């Protein structure tokens, strides 16, 4: 199945750009970043910035923008059956370099998981524009790292970057 990522969510003065790999099936179906109820992305944002993840999607996006966080995916399009990153083939990157160039206030990129990091470093091998954090995937498929440890690592990276 052909998958196409969403447009970036970006405010006026973004400082942090969070990049996932490609939205999963549930997110694509609902046209919302991190829509799977077991994904830890929104609970991490709540723990870090105090924005309840039970709020409407629009309110959660407003919270990101208020905290100068932009959100996008490394992959712009790919072929994938299901939601697992391991099933991604024919990945085509989003124009991330241009986004960062157009938004010079971005000083930190947070890569959500190993696949996002792998594709990012493959497509942008000489990246030296911003600080980069490779963080544990918030996906429920990444069960090797306990929830509290994921939250701790994400909070540390986001708080250092703000």
So what's the CATH class?
Alpha Beta
At CATH level 3, the topology is: Uracil-DNA Glycosylase, subunit E
Main sheet record: 4 strands, parallel
Provide the gyration radius in Å. 14 Å
Strand content: 15-25%
Please bin the fraction of helical residues.
Answer: 25-40%
The CATH homologous superfamily is called: Uracil-DNA glycosylase-like domain
Overall SS class: alpha/beta
Number of self-contained structural domains = 1
Low-confidence stretches: none
- Count of helical stretches: 6
CATH architecture: 3-Layer(aba) Sandwich
Give the CA-CA distance, first to last residue.
37 Å
Q: Give the spatial strand order of the biggest sheet.
A: 3-2-6-7
Shape: globular
SSE order: EEHHHEEEHEHEH
Number of beta strands: 7
Give the averaged pLDDT, no decimals.
Answer: 91
Description:
By secondary structure, the chain is α/β, with parallel strands linked by helices. The protein has a single domain (2-161), classed as Uracil-DNA glycosylase-like domain (Uracil-DNA Glycosylase, subunit E, 3-Layer(aba) Sandwich). Helix content is 35%, strand content 20%. It has 6 helices and 7 strands, in the order E-E-H-H-H-E-E-E-H-E-H-E-H. The chain has helices at 25-30, 41-49, 57-66, 96-102, 114-123, 147-161, and strands at 2-4, 16-20, 69-73, 75-79, 89-93, 108-112, 131-135.
């Amino acid at each position: 199945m052909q998958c196409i990522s969403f447009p970036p969510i970006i405010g006026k003065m973004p400082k942090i750009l969070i990049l996932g790999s490609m939205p999963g099936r549930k997110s694509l179906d609902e046209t919302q970043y991190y829509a799977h109820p077991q994904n830890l992305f929104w609970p991490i944002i709540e723990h870090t910035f105090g924005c309840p993840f039970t709020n409407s999607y629009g309110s959660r996006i407003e919270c990101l923008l208020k905290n100068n966080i932009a959100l996008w995916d490394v992959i712009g399009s790919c072929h994938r059956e299901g939601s697992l990153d391991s099933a991604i083939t024919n990945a085509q990157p989003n124009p991330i370099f241009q986004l960062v160039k157009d938004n010079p206030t971005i000083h930190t990129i947070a890569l959500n998981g190993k696949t996002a990091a792998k594709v990012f470093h493959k497509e942008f091998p000489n990246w030296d524009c911003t600080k980069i954090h490779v963080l544990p995937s918030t996906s429920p498929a990444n069960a090797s790292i306990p929830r509290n440890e994921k939250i701790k690592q994400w909070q540390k990276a986001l708080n250092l970057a703000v």
